[in-house]
Amino acid sequence: MTVSLPQQPSNAMRDNITITHSLTHNLLAWFTENQRPLPWRKKYSPYHVWIVEIMGQQTQMERVVTYFKNWIKQFPDIPTLAAASEQEVIKAWEGLGYYSRVRNIRKTATILMQEYGGKVPDNEVQLLALPGIGPYTAAALLSIAFNRPVPLVDANVERVICRLDDIDQPVKQAATRKLLIQRCAELLPQENARDFNQALMEFGALICTPKKPACSTCPVQQYCQAYQKDIVDLRPIPGKKKKQLDIFMACGIIQHSNRFYIQQRLENDVWGGLWEFPGGRIKEGESSEQAAVREIREETEFQVTDLRPLATVVHYYTKYRVTLDAFFCTLQDSRKKIQPEPVLHAASQYKWVTFNELPTFAFPAGHRQLIEKLG
Fold first, then answer.
1. Are 277 and 302 in contact (CB under 8 A)?
2. Which of 216, 240, 264 is the last residue of a domain?
3. What angle in degrees, to the nearest 10, is found between the helix axes of 61-74 and 86-93?
4. Which of 51, 119, 200, 202 has the largest count of CB atoms under 10 Å?
5. Residue 350's CB: how many other CB atoms inside 10 A?
6. H helix intervals, 188-254
């Protein structure tokens, strides 16, 4: 009778296990000493983690901290948020962009009140069923809010792992993504996932930065293959750069009886629910002035005249660079009514407001720039 003895791990396997444990230990020790005192780290409230994760998408940390503090002051808990009006939450979000995110936050708050007693669930399936919560946000909530051993891979983590392991394939490929998640899972301590995932992200934000990383003070330098090969600046390998598309637009600032005309964009439009001065895209062969006159007529049936340039502003939306020409203009029938009524074709409602009232409404970035120039 042959007795099979348990297979012993090879020297290489034991070395890999030792390196993994040491990497994890060093990163956790570094995080304990160097983590930033971010406000949501005081209690790790699931509500706080949820809000900051949505805010932090494509936004610099300094801005996130400011917006988060103001948000929590205005909406300290889920019941308060669920009871707020859409305009209140959109105004609180103004400047962060991607306004579908804040509308989803409000929808989710309502669902949480109706189905979960005003609490964020700790179940992946339930989280993924909520508006605006995808796989990454669900994983972040499970890991950071509930300390579950779920790997997190954001842009900072991608960079750190690609340099540590010298991953020489484009970082956004599906195969690379799978490899990164697998590697993070190997490094992840089962009992302290919250701190480790944050350690990786914080390390990427403060030490293993995109440009001029602080390799000389890196606590895991000895394990970094890119550093050993002197190719840190070549990792990660980027994917194809998205082409930037230009959009040219024009709008009209209609002032009548010391009030300005503004209208609210339709819910399903880009920047839906925000307020704006009427206008739109410039057609081929049109001047900016002609486009402003036409767009105002098509959207409101107002006839305007006496156009005077106010400013040209540029702002960015996803892959688009938007150049907006703005003009002061006068209503042709301005003497008929104190506050003429438009016939709306591209907006849900309108208002005639004073200059001091303008900042109380949420506007897209380009129109906010115009309001600043009006002052």
1. no
2. 240
3. 150
4. 200
5. 18
6. 193-206, 225-228
What would the pLDDT profile of 77-124 be if each residue is shown by its tens digit?
Answer: 999 999 999 999 999 999 998 899 999 999 999 999 999 999 999 999
What pLDDT was estimated at residue 84?
97
Q: For the chain, how long is the longest CA-to-CA vector? A: 108
For residue 81, the model assigns a pLDDT of: 98
Please report how the helices 46-55 and 99-115 are oriented relative to each other, as an axis angle in degrees rounded to 10: 160
Contact (CB, 8 A) for 127 and 133? yes
Q: Is residue 23 part of a domain?
A: no
Q: How far apart are CA 280 and CA 293, in angstroms?
A: 10
* CA 349/CA 341 separation, integer angstroms: 11
Report how far residue 225's alpha carbon sits from residue 248's, in angstroms, rounded to the nearest whole number.
Answer: 47
pLDDT in tens, 213-224: 999 999 999 999
Structure tokens, 178: 């799978």
Domain limits for position 66: 45-146
Q: Which residue has the tokens 């003009």?
A: 327
Q: Taking the C-alpha atoms of 202, 208, 213 and 218 in order, what is their torsion angle to the nearest 10 degrees?
A: 90
**Would you name the residues annotated as active-site residues?**
53
| pLDDT for the residue 334 | 62
d(CA 107, CA 100): 10
- Helix locations, the chain, DSSP H: 11-34, 46-55, 61-74, 78-83, 86-93, 99-115, 124-128, 135-140, 155-164, 174-187, 193-206, 225-228, 288-300, 365-374
Q: Which of 185, 213, 240 is the last residue of a domain?
A: 240
Domain membership flag for residue 12: no
- Inform me whether the pLDDT recorded for 166 exceeds 50: yes
